[in-house]
Amino acid sequence: MSILVTGAAGFIGAAVAERLLARGDRVIGLDNLNSYYSPALKQQRLERLERHSNFRFHRLDLEDNAAISDLFRSEGLQRVIHLAAQAGVRYSIENPLAYVNSNVVGFLSILEGCRHHGIEHLVYASSSSVYGGNRLLPFSEQQAVNHPVSLYAATKKANELMAHTYSHLYGLPATGLRFFTVYGPWGRPDMAPMLFAKAILAGEPIRVFNQGRMERDFTYIDDIVEGVLRCLDKPATAEEGFNPLQPNPATALVPHRLFNIGNSQPVPLLSFIALLEQALGVKAIQQWEPMQPGDVVATAADTSALQQWVGFAPHTPLEAGVERFASWYLNWDQAEPTAT
Length: 340
Hints:
Strand 5 (about 120-125), helix 6 and strand 6 form a beta-alpha-beta unit. By secondary structure, the protein is an alpha/beta fold. Helix 5 packs parallel to helix 6 (about 150-170). The model has no long low-confidence stretch (mean pLDDT about 95). The protein is built from eleven helices and 13 strands. It has helices at about 10-20, 40-50, 65-75, 90-95, 95-115, 150-170, 190-200, 220-230, 270-280, 305-310, 320-330; strands at about 1-5, 25-30, 55-60, 80, 120-125, 175-180, 180-185, 205-210, 215, 220, 255-260, 265-270, 285-290.
């Protein structure tokens, strides 16, 4: 297939693109290589993808609707995996406009491209952050998500509503995937695993929020990729027997579906730190700090719907995933790559 992967230089996007290329698909990558975190890391990921002859890269902003429209028109796309977004919960408090521009206006450009060019299936990234103030664990797609605690979460809920609308109006099959705390090799340097590894090895303190009283459903990157591809290969359909008098938030009368992708094994943050210390062979200096605005205390995914739909749910044990991440990090060449 000919597949557009947005955010192709990002953590999840690059991993998804690599798997698609390995199975023989033609991948069109899109990214704006912004400086939210090191563009050098993004360039390194791109260099790995550009070794494949069936990969083509476009450096574009999602908000540039004319350029996005031209891309859809020229590349003969069949399916779209939309992973590009302005990421980061805390940064959304500092720079809200960036989130609306990228995550809302930019997503509209993608939806319009899909609408006008006969895209067979749109798979797009949502986030566990949409569950917001909900404390009922594990999080299920059948729960309402009406209490976001960050603008980032609000934009992701907006994406789900927008995609449903395009499914309703134009029959676009669309699947939204709520990712839970993704980690692994080539990860994002603004997230805890990379931040912690860098500080631990440098002998610097790590910031542990809420005095360590946090739990996260850490999900290994390979499991995320497997879930994305399986969903891509099974386009969303309307739910048979959908009852509009008692509507299920996870399904619809139209071809739109929502799924959690998480490991379903929430782990105390201090346990994660202990595993990382063991894998790196260095003890962390912990600097305890209060809860941060936009954060939640705990996340946990109910993945029964995903398993029923595609016969898969994440399962990589945290011990194994942290060991693989640490091994990669210790051998990662952080030299500046050749510019693309």
